[in-house]
Amino acid sequence: MNKPKTLLSLAAACLLVLTSLLVACESQPETTVTTTLTQTVTQTTTPEPDDPDPSVKNPGTVIEASLNSVQTLDIHFMSAASDTYIAYNVYDALLSSDLEGELFPSLATQVPTTENGLITTADDGATTIAFPIREGASFHNGDTLTPEDVKYTFLRGIISGRMGTIGQALLEEDSYANLTDREELESVFQALDSSIEIDGGKVVFHLPEPFSPFLEIIACNGAIFGIINKSWAIDQGAWPATADTMGDYMDLTTAENELHDK
Predict the structure, then answer these.
(1) How confident is the model at residue 164 (pLDDT cuts 50, 70, 90)?
(2) How far, in Å, CA of 54 to CA of 84, rounded?
(3) What phi and psi, each to the nearest 5 degrees, are found at residue 105?
(4) What is the 3-state secondary structure (H, E, C) of the chain?
(5) For the segment 126-142, what is each residue's pLDDT rounded down to a tens digit?
(6) Whole-prediction pTM
């Protein structure tokens, strides 16, 4: 007769424990985790430049101090770095190049390529490179650039030794001077003269064989292969670019206001 009570008591106890667990679960506080991201942005404002100092006479002029003085303004006899700085700012070449080495026209209107037909190579290797010369360009004295100026520049530069690499490509000789040691002066000049041809508005170089760095060499931004004014140079006493004056083209005369007797 006691079993039913025992079972009832056991069931009641289990119900009491379950109820306690449920109450305990409900009584636990709810925890909320909040994450806050903070971003700091720093903004720097460049101040406006101050008004130029009125005591500065030429605020737009940059003056660079150099250890070396300029030796000459004749591009074919420049050797010092100070001279080259002047050449960069005074002379222009047929081609120029940027910092990546890409070529672009300067006093020539196109960069010669085989695709545009300005570079041709015959079966025997003979190569021609033509440069269309820019029209309307002028020198500092107002004279208009002509193909004759370009040819004269290269003749004078090669003979003086300044453009030795191009002379080597045209004459297949280490230098113009070396060639004149073995052959007559006039015949050497005629060979050089015929290797640079004026064809209308173009100057054409005739090479006995391909010379791949030709364009890159002359794309010097005016430092070495800058074009000079032929008539002005001759007026100053420079060589007149004729075979009969090759041996005597330095005419030294005393200026009227010369300070010292010669």
Answers:
(1) confident
(2) 33
(3) -65, 150
(4) CCHHHHHHHHHHHHHHHHHHHHHHHHHCCCCCCCCCCCCCCCCCCCCCCCCCCCCCCCCCCCCCCCCCCCCCCCHHHCCCHHHHHHHHHHCCCCEEECCCCCEEECCECCCCCCCCCCEEECCCCCEEEEEEECCCCECCCCCECCHHHHHHHHHHHHHHCCCHHHHHHHHCCCCHHHHHHHCCHHHHHHHHHHHEEEECCEEEEEECCCCCCHHHHHCCCCCCCCCCCHHHHHHCCCCCCCHHHCCCCCCCCCCCCCCCCC
(5) 999 999 999 999 998 99
(6) 0.69
Count CA within 13 A, CB hemisphere, residue 201. Answer: 12
Length of the chain (residues): 262
Structure tokens at 210: 């391909």
* Cα distance between residue 88 and residue 186, in whole Å: 34
